Amino acid sequence: MDILISEKELQKRVKLLGEEITKAYEGKPLLMLCMLKGASVFFADLIRNVSLPLEIDFMRVSSYENSTESNGEVKFLLYPSLPLAKYHVLLVEDILDTGTTLYTVIPELLKQNPLSLKICTLLDKKERRKFPVEAEYVGFSIPDVFVVGYGLDYAEKERNLPYIGKYI
Length: 168
Ligand code: IMP
Ligand code: MG
What we know:
The protein has 168 residues and is an alpha/beta fold. The chain has a single domain (2-166), classed as Rossmann fold, CATH 3.40.50. The protein is built from three helices and nine strands; from the N terminus they run E-H-E-H-E-E-E-H-E-E-E-E. The chain has a six-stranded mixed sheet, sandwiched between helices. It has a three-stranded antiparallel sheet with strand order 1-9-8. Strand 5, helix 3 (100-110) and strand 6 form a beta-alpha-beta unit. Helix 1 (7-24) crosses helix 2 (40-47). The radius of gyration is 15 Å and the shape is globular. It binds inosinic acid and magnesium ion (MG). The site of inosinic acid has 17 residues, from strand 5, helix 3 and strand 8.
């Protein structure tokens, strides 16, 4: 598989993102919210680079049914269990593509009145956007190629690759 982002580059960038987040949320009650399953690997590395007394939670939606294209329908499979109103919430995503997923998820989370809600995505495929969603923290902007690894899957496979590869 062709490597798009190496393990070393990932670790370097994640460390910097962690430092940025540490500065931005100092003194604030921070909840880092992981979007399962794709963001799990990134999330595990990222939270260990944030030096704050943060809390974590998980949510899961599904919109891709074993294909490389979203079917446009977002199903909520797991809601966060902590009361979001108590926190500055940072939603951690693997990749921001068309924006369909987050465009649906964000209003749903805002219903709980978090102190603030921002997005941190490892990857951003800007040119694919169909809905106006922007992330506060972006690991890497990438071109329109289907990628796998470091949590990202194709039909549930390849999540365990330690790098981001171009799926062919
Ligand atoms: P969106 O709703 O189109 O923004 O897509 C977001 C979701 O689609 C991500 O959380 C991923 O699960 C999945 N996705 C989008 N592009 C890719 C890719 O290149 N590789 C693997 N998953 C992707
Ligand atoms: Mg996925």
